[in-house]
Amino acid sequence: MSKATAVFDFSGARVLVTGGTSGIGLATARAFADAGASVTITGTRESSSAYDEDLARFDFRQLRVTDNAEIRAVAASLDGLDILVNNAGNARLAGPEDSVEAVFEEMVRVHLLSGHHMSEACLDMLSASTLAGGASVVGISSLTSFMAAPWVPGYGAGKAGMVQLAKTQAKLWGDQGVRSNCVTAGYTQTRLTAAVKEMPEANAAVIQRTALQRWGQPQEIADAVLFLSSDRASFITGETLIVDGGYLYSE
Q1: Beta bridge partner(s), residue 241
Q2: Is 121 a member of any domain?
Protein backbone atom coordinates (compact mmCIF):
# COMPACT_ATOMS: atom_id res chain seq x y z
CA MET A 1 0.00 0.00 0.00
CA SER A 2 1.45 3.34 -1.04
CA LYS A 3 1.59 6.24 1.36
CA ALA A 4 1.16 9.74 -0.07
CA THR A 5 2.31 12.21 2.56
CA ALA A 6 3.25 15.85 2.08
CA VAL A 7 6.30 16.90 4.04
CA PHE A 8 7.06 20.56 4.77
CA ASP A 9 10.48 21.97 5.59
CA PHE A 10 10.45 25.32 7.40
CA SER A 11 14.00 25.10 8.71
CA GLY A 12 15.18 28.57 9.68
CA ALA A 13 11.73 30.15 9.39
CA ARG A 14 10.52 32.42 12.18
CA VAL A 15 6.83 32.03 13.00
CA LEU A 16 4.44 33.85 15.32
CA VAL A 17 1.13 32.18 16.23
CA THR A 18 -1.25 34.27 18.31
CA GLY A 19 -3.40 32.24 20.67
CA GLY A 20 -1.01 29.34 20.31
CA THR A 21 -1.61 27.72 23.69
CA SER A 22 -4.49 25.41 22.72
CA GLY A 23 -6.67 24.12 19.90
CA ILE A 24 -5.92 25.14 16.33
CA GLY A 25 -3.24 27.59 17.42
CA LEU A 26 -1.29 24.97 19.37
CA ALA A 27 -1.63 22.42 16.57
CA THR A 28 -0.29 25.01 14.13
CA ALA A 29 2.62 25.93 16.39
CA ARG A 30 3.52 22.26 16.81
CA ALA A 31 3.31 21.62 13.07
CA PHE A 32 5.66 24.48 12.27
CA ALA A 33 8.07 23.42 15.02
CA ASP A 34 8.01 19.83 13.75
CA ALA A 35 8.90 21.20 10.31
CA GLY A 36 11.97 22.96 11.72
CA ALA A 37 10.68 26.49 12.34
CA SER A 38 11.43 28.68 15.33
CA VAL A 39 7.99 29.37 16.81
CA THR A 40 6.74 32.08 19.13
CA ILE A 41 3.26 31.79 20.58
CA THR A 42 1.09 34.16 22.56
CA GLY A 43 -1.39 33.61 25.36
CA THR A 44 -3.22 35.70 27.91
CA ARG A 45 -1.55 34.19 31.00
CA GLU A 46 1.69 35.41 32.53
CA SER A 47 3.88 32.53 31.41
CA SER A 48 3.80 29.30 29.43
CA SER A 49 4.04 27.33 32.68
CA ALA A 50 0.57 28.56 33.61
CA TYR A 51 -0.94 26.27 30.97
CA ASP A 52 -1.65 22.55 31.23
CA GLU A 53 -0.04 21.87 27.85
CA ASP A 54 3.73 21.47 27.54
CA LEU A 55 4.77 24.63 25.70
CA ALA A 56 8.49 24.43 26.48
CA ARG A 57 9.50 24.12 22.82
CA PHE A 58 8.08 27.56 21.99
CA ASP A 59 9.02 31.11 22.86
CA PHE A 60 6.12 32.63 24.76
CA ARG A 61 4.74 36.18 24.90
CA GLN A 62 1.85 37.29 27.05
CA LEU A 63 -0.71 39.13 24.93
CA ARG A 64 -4.22 40.45 25.22
CA VAL A 65 -5.11 41.06 21.60
CA THR A 66 -7.57 43.78 22.60
CA ASP A 67 -4.63 45.90 23.78
CA ASN A 68 -2.86 47.64 20.90
CA ALA A 69 0.12 48.56 23.08
CA GLU A 70 0.67 44.88 23.92
CA ILE A 71 0.41 43.99 20.23
CA ARG A 72 3.14 46.50 19.39
CA ALA A 73 5.27 45.26 22.30
CA VAL A 74 5.08 41.64 21.11
CA ALA A 75 6.07 42.66 17.59
CA ALA A 76 8.94 44.78 18.91
CA SER A 77 10.25 41.85 20.96
CA LEU A 78 10.89 39.71 17.87
CA ASP A 79 14.25 39.60 16.07
CA GLY A 80 12.56 38.91 12.75
CA LEU A 81 9.51 37.22 11.27
CA ASP A 82 8.63 35.19 8.19
CA ILE A 83 5.14 33.91 8.99
CA LEU A 84 2.37 35.44 11.08
CA VAL A 85 -0.68 33.36 12.00
CA ASN A 86 -3.50 35.51 13.38
CA ASN A 87 -5.34 32.80 15.28
CA ALA A 88 -6.23 34.26 18.70
CA GLY A 89 -9.95 34.42 19.41
CA ASN A 90 -12.95 33.40 21.44
CA ALA A 91 -16.70 33.19 20.94
CA ARG A 92 -18.32 35.20 23.69
CA LEU A 93 -22.07 35.49 24.17
CA ALA A 94 -23.52 38.56 25.86
CA GLY A 95 -24.67 37.54 29.33
CA PRO A 96 -27.41 39.16 31.41
CA GLU A 97 -24.94 41.62 32.96
CA ASP A 98 -23.14 42.44 29.70
CA SER A 99 -23.78 45.20 27.23
CA VAL A 100 -24.67 43.59 23.91
CA GLU A 101 -22.97 46.51 22.16
CA ALA A 102 -19.76 46.09 24.19
CA VAL A 103 -19.57 42.34 23.52
CA PHE A 104 -20.12 42.91 19.80
CA GLU A 105 -17.29 45.44 19.70
CA GLU A 106 -15.03 43.15 21.74
CA MET A 107 -15.53 40.28 19.31
CA VAL A 108 -14.74 42.47 16.30
CA ARG A 109 -11.66 43.78 18.08
CA VAL A 110 -10.48 40.29 19.03
CA HIS A 111 -10.93 38.72 15.61
CA LEU A 112 -10.53 41.51 13.06
CA LEU A 113 -8.82 44.55 14.52
CA SER A 114 -6.17 42.55 16.37
CA GLY A 115 -5.19 40.79 13.15
CA HIS A 116 -4.93 44.10 11.34
CA HIS A 117 -2.86 45.73 14.07
CA MET A 118 -0.55 42.74 14.52
CA SER A 119 0.02 42.47 10.78
CA GLU A 120 0.83 46.18 10.54
CA ALA A 121 3.17 45.95 13.53
CA CYS A 122 5.04 43.04 11.92
CA LEU A 123 5.05 44.34 8.33
CA ASP A 124 8.63 45.64 8.27
CA MET A 125 9.92 42.29 9.49
CA LEU A 126 7.75 40.34 7.07
CA SER A 127 8.78 42.48 4.10
CA ALA A 128 12.44 41.83 4.99
CA SER A 129 11.91 38.06 4.95
CA THR A 130 13.84 35.92 2.49
CA LEU A 131 11.58 32.90 2.96
CA ALA A 132 11.09 30.85 -0.19
CA GLY A 133 7.66 31.68 -1.59
CA GLY A 134 7.57 34.97 0.29
CA ALA A 135 6.52 35.93 3.79
CA SER A 136 2.98 35.04 4.83
CA VAL A 137 0.15 36.32 6.95
CA VAL A 138 -2.52 33.68 7.58
CA GLY A 139 -5.76 34.45 9.39
CA ILE A 140 -7.93 31.76 10.94
CA SER A 141 -11.55 32.47 10.09
CA SER A 142 -14.63 30.30 10.56
CA LEU A 143 -17.81 29.19 8.85
CA THR A 144 -19.46 32.28 10.34
CA SER A 145 -17.50 34.23 7.73
CA PHE A 146 -20.05 32.94 5.23
CA MET A 147 -23.06 31.91 7.33
CA ALA A 148 -25.31 33.95 9.59
CA ALA A 149 -24.38 33.68 13.29
CA PRO A 150 -27.23 35.30 15.22
CA TRP A 151 -26.07 33.78 18.51
CA VAL A 152 -22.61 35.42 18.21
CA PRO A 153 -23.09 38.34 15.80
CA GLY A 154 -19.86 40.13 16.70
CA TYR A 155 -17.86 36.93 16.29
CA GLY A 156 -19.35 36.34 12.85
CA ALA A 157 -18.74 39.92 11.76
CA GLY A 158 -15.14 39.80 12.97
CA LYS A 159 -14.44 36.51 11.21
CA ALA A 160 -16.05 37.73 7.99
CA GLY A 161 -13.87 40.82 8.18
CA MET A 162 -10.77 38.64 8.30
CA VAL A 163 -11.61 37.25 4.86
CA GLN A 164 -11.83 40.73 3.38
CA LEU A 165 -8.72 41.84 5.28
CA ALA A 166 -6.68 39.09 3.61
CA LYS A 167 -7.72 40.39 0.19
CA THR A 168 -6.80 43.95 1.09
CA GLN A 169 -3.46 43.01 2.62
CA ALA A 170 -2.67 40.89 -0.43
CA LYS A 171 -3.13 43.89 -2.69
CA LEU A 172 -1.33 46.33 -0.40
CA TRP A 173 1.70 44.18 0.35
CA GLY A 174 2.19 41.98 -2.71
CA ASP A 175 4.94 44.21 -4.08
CA GLN A 176 6.78 43.78 -0.77
CA GLY A 177 6.84 40.01 -1.11
CA VAL A 178 4.21 39.43 1.58
CA ARG A 179 1.28 37.12 0.88
CA SER A 180 -1.92 37.18 2.94
CA ASN A 181 -4.52 34.41 3.06
CA CYS A 182 -7.18 32.92 5.31
CA VAL A 183 -8.04 29.42 6.43
CA THR A 184 -11.70 28.95 7.24
CA ALA A 185 -12.04 26.23 9.85
CA GLY A 186 -15.17 24.12 9.87
CA TYR A 187 -16.42 22.28 12.93
CA THR A 188 -13.13 21.33 14.56
CA GLN A 189 -12.73 19.39 17.79
CA THR A 190 -11.26 21.89 20.26
CA ARG A 191 -11.96 23.21 23.74
CA LEU A 192 -13.93 26.08 22.18
CA THR A 193 -16.34 23.71 20.41
CA ALA A 194 -16.55 21.07 23.15
CA ALA A 195 -19.95 22.26 24.37
CA VAL A 196 -21.48 21.75 20.91
CA LYS A 197 -19.92 18.33 20.47
CA GLU A 198 -21.23 17.20 23.86
CA MET A 199 -24.83 18.02 22.92
CA PRO A 200 -26.16 14.89 21.15
CA GLU A 201 -28.58 16.68 18.84
CA ALA A 202 -26.14 19.41 17.88
CA ASN A 203 -23.33 16.90 17.36
CA ALA A 204 -25.56 14.73 15.17
CA ALA A 205 -26.58 17.75 13.09
CA VAL A 206 -22.95 18.69 12.46
CA ILE A 207 -21.99 15.19 11.39
CA GLN A 208 -25.07 14.75 9.22
CA ARG A 209 -24.42 17.93 7.25
CA THR A 210 -20.65 17.44 6.95
CA ALA A 211 -19.89 15.54 3.75
CA LEU A 212 -17.08 13.58 5.40
CA GLN A 213 -19.41 12.67 8.29
CA ARG A 214 -17.08 13.69 11.09
CA TRP A 215 -15.56 16.63 12.95
CA GLY A 216 -12.23 18.05 11.88
CA GLN A 217 -9.06 17.83 13.95
CA PRO A 218 -6.86 20.84 14.77
CA GLN A 219 -3.96 19.26 12.89
CA GLU A 220 -6.02 19.30 9.70
CA ILE A 221 -6.43 23.06 9.96
CA ALA A 222 -2.73 23.41 10.77
CA ASP A 223 -1.83 21.50 7.61
CA ALA A 224 -3.72 24.06 5.53
CA VAL A 225 -1.84 26.89 7.26
CA LEU A 226 1.50 25.25 6.50
CA PHE A 227 0.54 24.79 2.86
CA LEU A 228 -0.45 28.43 2.41
CA SER A 229 2.79 29.53 4.12
CA SER A 230 4.99 27.31 1.97
CA ASP A 231 6.65 27.83 -1.40
CA ARG A 232 4.09 25.40 -2.83
CA ALA A 233 1.60 28.28 -2.48
CA SER A 234 3.93 31.00 -3.77
CA PHE A 235 1.34 32.33 -6.28
CA ILE A 236 -1.60 32.24 -3.85
CA THR A 237 -2.57 35.42 -2.03
CA GLY A 238 -5.82 37.09 -1.01
CA GLU A 239 -7.55 33.72 -0.91
CA THR A 240 -9.58 31.86 1.69
CA LEU A 241 -9.12 28.10 1.92
CA ILE A 242 -12.20 26.45 3.42
CA VAL A 243 -11.31 23.37 5.47
CA ASP A 244 -14.66 22.07 6.69
CA GLY A 245 -15.11 18.51 5.45
CA GLY A 246 -17.74 19.71 2.99
CA TYR A 247 -20.05 21.34 5.56
CA LEU A 248 -20.60 24.75 3.99
CA TYR A 249 -21.84 23.50 0.65
CA SER A 250 -23.80 20.53 1.90
CA GLU A 251 -27.50 20.53 2.75
Answers
A1: 183
A2: yes
